[in-house]
Design goal:
10 helices; single chain; alpha/beta
């Protein structure tokens, strides 16, 4: 059993446990090729896509649009062609993400150590449901995760407090004061969990400057062990 204040650790999935950016690059290249899109360099198109995608997901987080408006709207902005089947394009892209997304190095070992120490480990994600399930199921950490809480399935996305409450419920641990949220998004992971009353750890591998006030901040997930030891 852990000897410090935390028992349940909630993790974001994309770009916290899984390398989402690398999968995006490969998925974009495949999408352009499969649909013979008259695009330029795939890296350039991906940068444009990421800007559009991030803006739309943040609008979803604020409750301004629905999920389908994100998934289809991002392609309508990027490739505005009258005869393009945006749903088919998005499906190809999502299939590429499902195929190429992998755990970051060291994640499996870290989560195994945390489980060995007695922590409950769960995931809270805004990602597309079937992809997140498939990625987790085929990964080394599937057996270590108590609950996978996906916005698609609970009907609400981070940073809404309801998704964090659902994560605690599915983890069979309702004590906020002994729960820690770990994620790479200041808006959805850190602000959302903090507003719900959870302690937070900002995973900031790039060392980006910010004005948020998480309880902890790490450049590498392995630093969590030191934080938990010191609590």
């Amino acid at each position: 059993m852990p000897i410090n204040k935390y028992k349940l650790i909630l993790f974001d999935l994309d770009n916290t446990l899984f390398d989402f950016d690398s999968a995006q690059r490969l998925a974009m290249r495949r999408t352009i090729e499969v649909h013979d899109l008259p695009a330029g360099n795939a890296v350039v198109e991906l940068r444009k896509f990421q800007g559009i995608n991030d803006r739309l997901w943040k609008a979803l987080e604020r409750g301004e649009i629905e999920r389908d408006e994100v998934l289809l709207g991002r392609w309508k902005e990027l490739f505005d062609y009258a005869d393009l089947d945006y749903a088919a394009v998005d499906q190809t892209f999502l299939e590429g993400l499902a195929e190429h997304k992998r755990l970051f190095p060291g994640v499996a070992e870290l989560l195994q150590e945390l489980r060995n120490r007695g922590y409950i480990l769960s995931i809270v994600t805004n990602g597309v449901g079937w992809i997140q399930k498939e990625n987790l199921a085929k990964s080394e950490i599937a057996r270590l995760i108590t609950a996978l809480v996906i916005s698609d399935e609970v009907g609400v996305a981070k940073p809404a407090p309801q998704i964090f409450e659902e994560a605690l419920r599915q983890s069979s641990w309702m004590e906020k004061q002994s729960t820690l949220m770990v994620g790479d998004s200041l808006s959805s992971d850190i602000a959302g969990a903090k507003a719900f009353g959870l302690d937070t750890c900002f995973y900031n591998p790039g060392g980006i400057p910010h004005e948020a006030d998480p309880n902890y901040e790490v450049r590498a997930l392995e630093e969590l062990l030191g934080i938990l030891n010191a609590c």
